[in-house]
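Every protein is a chain of amino acids, and every chain bends into a shape of its own. Below is the pair of lines this work produces for a single protein:
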Amino acid sequence: MLILAIALVVGFAVYMIYSWQRLKKMSAVPESDKIITLTDKNYKHQLGDGLIMVDFWAEWCMPCKIMGPVLNELAGDEKFKARVAKLNVEDFPAISQQFAIKGIPTLIVFKNGKEVNRIVGVKPKDFIMKQVNASA
């Protein structure tokens, strides 16, 4: 029985290492052309008008890569009430500090320039849609 338990633990560990390596090598999904790329030059203008959800992310962040397809779907979904934007925290650290970004991915929903909701971590499309549409 002990040998079986050890074999299961080792098998699980091997599987987790394999999955981690596969995830690490995963390339980022190309962004939808409907996603706005924010910079230090345009972010204030973009945040000030209507409802916008900003993804604070980094190229090396594996959970951010997982969120890529979800954000593309949301940007193209007519039922989603917000525009979708992304801001790379490595390229613009002062902006991420201004919004107290402690971990990524972080999605912040702004309504006319004011933060109305914050979602941290990997979340499914339906959850994000409900949270953001409720902020509208």
The longest strand covers residues 51-57. The chain is about 45% helix and 20% strand. Strands lie at 36-37, 51-57, 83-88, 106-111, 114-120. Residues 36-135 form a domain with the Glutaredoxin fold (CATH 3.40.30.10).
